[in-house]
Each structure stands twice: as structure tokens, then as C-alpha cells.
Design a protein that fits this description.
globular, single chain, 13 strands, alpha+beta, 6-stranded mixed beta sheet, 20% strand
Length: 327
């Protein structure tokens, strides 16, 4: 038992509403995944596999996901878990990768009425064990995140973002950070920033830029464009007030990229939608994994409708050619 896990928190873990228990466990699980990611990097052999164009997988992706799925499936066997690297769990997971603790600060929250009675078969957990794999292999470690998103029905309602290398350039500073949010319930692990008021800062893809993506960016008339890796990292820029909006006119990201960031962003008053109809994506178990209608996200206090209105019709037409099941 972890030294900070008391009898009181163990009781809370057994009696708290399911949604709180899942997010509370995911916080500790994400921390462990971050340790695994750092351990593999420190050993020097990343075990890189090329899954497709601009789509890498490393031993850190595989091992972190193994830990996450093993930990969550053992505690919540009735919950559907969908991971970027597949949904199966190895039978020989190291015992220290199987996390059983929960974050007591999340368990102590007051759960909103609409989530109190949610059952395991109503939940879907979307896992990206290492968002920003390309940046991880290139040493751009501040771009890397671990994403665990929790959906009820169609809707992303809870999320955890862990940054394994937070503070890695600050000598002597604690390494790593985990943030979380539950819509209508609370958030933690970070301080909400105020987005720039006198200039428009847009964040977008670092490695998947094409004419369509650029057209949407130009239409927003940005004063500055931050090209960074990882959907989790981009939304972090909105959460902390370093950017006004995240604009990505492409079907290049997946549900495991956006579920956790969307839930946390919505929990603090921001918004994330597609770029064709301005609707939230669906996250039920049978949905298409690809976010084929692009991603538009705005920081709290920003007028999301203004950004949506600026999207060129030509961009909408290109993105709307994809299946409506991707919503």
C-alpha cells in the first residue's frame, strides 16, 4: 500500500461514485505510465516501430499502455477501454506496473447528480499512452503527454493529462505533472491562465501541415502561430492561457487524442468541436476512431463561434466528405 493511502481514502475508493473512482485511479495510473516512459528513455533504446507515414510507435508507447490498461481493467472489468496501441493486455504484466491506488483529492469531490449512478457498462475509456511520439523520439520532451479520457455515452466527461517531462529543463525542480478535470465536478493539478487579450495566438500541428491546414490558420488572422506536437500539449496551451485557440483542419487525430483534453477543457469553460458542424465529437464504443472533421478548440473566455465562422467553406467541404459516424 502506498504510504499516502489511508484507511479513509481506501473507504472512499470503495464508496465513491464510479466516475470519481475511475478518474482518481487514472491520475495515479498516468503517473506510473510517466515513470515507465522516463525509464525507457533513460535506457537509450526506444524500440521504434514505424506504423505508417509520420506514425511512430516506441517501447514507451507499448509499455505505458500495458500498464494503463492492466491497471484500469483489473479494477473496472466492465468498462470498455480503447487504446491507441490496441486493446489487449499481456498476461505477464510486471506487478509494479499494475496500479491499485487512487488520488484522494478526486475521491473527495462532490459528484454531480447526472453522474452519480453511472455504471461500468456505460463508460468508455480512451487511452493514448504517449501523445507526441515523434517529438519523444526527437527529444522535444515538453510536447509529450499521457492521455486518459473517460466518456459516458457519447460525451467526454472526465480526463487526465500527465506530462512526464514537466520541469525537465529546470534543474532541481520536481519532474512530471498530472492534471485532471470532470465536467460539472471540478479540476486540478494546474492553474487556469488567461488567454492573450491584445493578440491572437493559435496553436496547431507541428508535423502534419498541408494547404488545407494552412488555409484555416490564415483565416483566423493570427498574430502568432505555435506549431507543437501532441493534442494534449496543444490543449494545455489553452488551459494555461498561452494560446487563444487550437486549429487543426485535418482528420489526422483520433478519439484517444481528444477525449481527455476535451473533458478537461470543457470542465473549465473552454470548448472543443469539429470544424464542419461545430459539434462535440462522440466517444461511444462503436464510433469511428478518426476525428475526420478536424478539431477547433478555444480557451475559456474566447468566442468559439467567431473562430468557427472564420473557417473557409472550402475547408468545410473537404472535411465534410468524411463519414458522419466520426462525430
Amino acid at each position: 500500500m502506498s504510504p499516502n493511502i489511508t484507511l479513509t481514502s481506501l473507504k472512499m475508493a470503495s464508496t465513491s461514485p464510479l466516475i470519481l473512482r475511475v478518474v482518481a485511479t487514472s491520475v495515479v495510473v498516468a503517473n506510473r505510465a510517466g515513470e515507465i516512459i522516463r525509464d525507457i528513455m533513460s535506457k537509450g533504446d526506444l524500440g521504434i516501430v514505424e506504423k505508417g507515414k509520420n506514425d511512430l510507435q516506441t517501447e514507451a508507447d507499448r509499455s505505458a499502455q500495458c500498464s494503463i490498461i492492466a491497471s484500469l481493467s483489473s479494477q473496472f472489468p466492465g468498462v470498455k477501454i480503447i487504446g491507441e496501441e490496441g486493446d489487449s493486455v499481456s498476461s505477464d504484466v510486471p506487478s509494479d506496473w499494475n496500479v491499485t491506488d487512487s488520488d484522494p483529492s478526486v475521491l473527495a469531490l462532490k459528484c454531480p447528480d447526472n453522474l452519480k449512478s453511472v455504471k461500468e457498462d456505460e463508460l468508455v475509456i480512451w487511452v493514448d499512452p504517449l501523445d507526441g511520439t515523434s517529438e519523444y523520439t526527437q527529444g522535444l520532451l515538453d510536447h509529450v503527454t499521457v492521455l486518459i479520457g473517460v466518456a459516458v455515452g457519447n460525451k467526454a466527461v472526465g480526463g487526465v493529462i500527465h506530462q512526464p517531462y514537466y520541469n525537465y529543463l529546470k534543474e532541481g525542480a520536481p519532474l512530471g505533472r498530472t492534471i485532471w478535470g470532470i465536467i460539472g465536478c471540478g479540476w486540478g493539478g494546474f492553474t487556469i491562465g488567461s488567454a492573450p487579450k491584445d493578440r491572437r495566438v493559435i496553436t496547431t500541428t507541428r508535423s502534419h501541415l498541408d494547404a488545407t491546414v494552412q488555409s484555416a490558420l490564415d483565416a483566423m488572422t493570427p498574430d502568432e502561430v505555435l506549431r507543437v506536437g501532441g493534442a494534449g500539449h496543444k490543449v494545455m496551451l489553452l488551459l494555461e492561457g498561452k494560446a487563444n485557440a487550437y486549429v487543426f483542419a485535418s482528420g489526422g487525430c483520433k478519439k484517444w487524442d481528444t477525449c481527455a483534453p476535451e473533458a478537461i477543457l470543457h470542465a473549465i469553460g473552454g470548448k472543443l468541436t469539429d470544424m464542419v458542424q461545430g459539434e462535440s465529437y462522440h466517444y461511444h464504443a462503436e464510433v469511428e476512431h478518426r476525428n475526420s472533421r478536424g478539431v477547433l478548440a478555444t480557451a475559456p473566455g474566447e468566442d468559439h463561434s467567431w473562430y468557427f465562422s472564420r473557417i473557409p467553406e472550402s475547408v468545410r467541404q473537404l472535411l465534410s466528405g468524411s463519414s458522419t459516424s466520426s462525430r
